[in-house]
């Protein structure tokens, strides 16, 4: 496993979720460049440093003994990784304060270190929230690998923070340093909203949600085929996003006991607010989590899932496979996993290996809806 060596620390870091023979490391050249740049500046134990979108804790762990570090991001797995990597490197668990992206970190901050996220709407919302939170002389430094650094990221820094200086490239990484200037208080365009015709409901979507402006086409294909009138079943919407699958299912199944879970804090925030607006005080367990990892065995009758096929910029089916495995463990005997997936991903074969019995419920030219039954 590669070791992160910086002017601040020498760290052994792991990714989350853990995979056997992990092909990827938990840091990259953008982390190294950012920490090297920061080391050229004055930083002491009283300095307040905000770290944004630190996927596996590389930045926060490096600075844990150097300053007052607040880490904020939208990934529950990032929080899990931070905790494990602090412990793995004999750093105190309380050395870094974590603030989920559904909440606003409280300044003032002397330095803000940003890993540019895949979703620029998340970056925009984070920059908007920095208004009035920066100490005199503060700097905001964003880092990314060049292939993942769109011009629009610099435009957002300029718009909400101040003049931006782009660094030279080092190991295919680049830094954008913004110097704060006086700006009027910005108004956030988030959350966004869209309306469904069938059923007639309106859904809100916080900044980091996939398909904020309209229902994604996979879910659109899935909704007409959700099972109805199944009575008092224990049902989970796994990877719930804004909660649309779980909410629409709950409307058709008033006795169902619902669990909605996602690893995105902004997804969970959106799902909670949508549930409240549409279903009022009807009980539901809506939480951020590592999929169904915390769900007791044999505790669910039905799992609904529109699985992701990427983690940040990494594309693959390992997250979906993990969700299917978690679902099988959490389902009772005879329980069912219903999913929608792109045809080309071959989920039918994967589910058949895991569950044995798999049926195609419906199909479109692009998607299949599958039903796997736990033996």
TrEMBL record:
Record localization: Cytoplasm
Residues annotated as domain RlmG N-terminal: 2-181
Family from the record: Belongs to the methyltransferase superfamily. RlmG family.
Species per Swiss-Prot/TrEMBL record: Stutzerimonas zhaodongensis
GO cellular component, one term: cytoplasm
GO molecular function, one term: nucleic acid binding
The protein, known as: Ribosomal RNA large subunit methyltransferase G
Gene3D superfamilies in the cross-refs: Vaccinia Virus protein VP39
Catalytic activity, reaction form: guanosine(1835) in 23S rRNA + S-adenosyl-L-methionine = N(2)-methylguanosine(1835) in 23S rRNA + S-adenosyl-L-homocysteine + H(+)
InterPro entries, per database record: DNA_methylase_N6_adenine_CS (IPR002052), RLMG (IPR017237), RlmG_N (IPR058679), RsmC/RlmG (IPR046977), SAM-dependent_MTases_sf (IPR029063), Small_mtfrase_dom (IPR007848)
Enzyme Commission identifier(s): 2.1.1.174
Keywords for this protein: Cytoplasm, Methyltransferase, rRNA processing, S-adenosyl-L-methionine, Transferase
Annotated CDD domains: AdoMet_MTases
Protein's job: Specifically methylates the guanine in position 1835 (m2G1835) of 23S rRNA.
EC primary class: transferase
Domain Methyltransferase small: start-end pairs: 201-371
